[in-house]
Amino acid sequence: MNLIEYIKENMILIPQGNEIIRDFVDPVKWLSSDYKMSAPGTNKEKIMKQKLVEVQSFLLFKIPVTNELYNYVMEMDYDITTKNCPVVNVSWIDAVNFCNNLSEKLALEKCYILDSVSEKIIVDNAKNGFKLPTDAQWQYACRGRATGYRYGNIEEIAWFEQNSEKRVHEVKTREKNDFGLFDMIGNVWEWCFDLYDEERYGNYRIFRGGSFASEERACGATSRRKSFPEFRIDDLGFRIAKNNLEGIK
């Protein structure tokens, strides 16, 4: 694999814009402080929160990270017949490590720093390496100038429960959005960098977009889920972002 050419070929410049981010919050905190074992404390009506976020222009991979790219960067063996399928069973931590490894391979500055004292991941947005998209970046890019819940007819843009035969599919086999991005909805959920709500859910991170195993209503631009950063499952992957083309020659 010519890594530099592969990355350049698959990076899309997302223009500057604004996005409204909404969330629906349970008014009662979770019962347990153990965030891997917590359970909701109430079924009361949820409170809607929303904010307008300005999204600066950035680069986003036009496809989810594939088995071919992931295993090449991480120097792991894999089934070559699935090389064009999104990598799955990767945790948020795995995705962060991949971003740092890819940056290192291309002689770029790593964006993520592990604080060994607090065991937290720190992001340095001034670095020129790769990172996960933020929650707002992901949603804005997913819409691709569309205003609705999806950027097209779900049967044409997404692999989901009703058409996927309960399996992951190769990337670029559904229609792209207006920004030129494939598989933003369906096929695999995608990790974002953000904490979901640190006060209420501790270190839970956000993932977006629905998957091949998701029902239709879960596949959309504003569809959001959360889990602890070590969580892995067979319909969850990620894609990579970068501030600009600096350092990619």
UniProtKB/TrEMBL annotation:
Protein name, entry field: Sulfatase-modifying factor enzyme-like domain-containing protein
GO terms of molecular function: formylglycine-generating oxidase activity
Sulfatase-modifying factor enzyme-like domain sequence ranges: 41-242
Domain of life (superkingdom): Bacteria
Pfam families in UniProt: FGE-sulfatase
Entries under InterPro entries matching the protein: CTDL_fold, Sulfatase_Mod_Factor_Kinase, SUMF_dom, SUMF_sf
Regions crossing the membrane: none
Naturally occurring in which organism (per UniProt): Johnsonella ignava ATCC 51276
Lineage: Bacteria, Bacillati, Bacillota, Clostridia, Lachnospirales
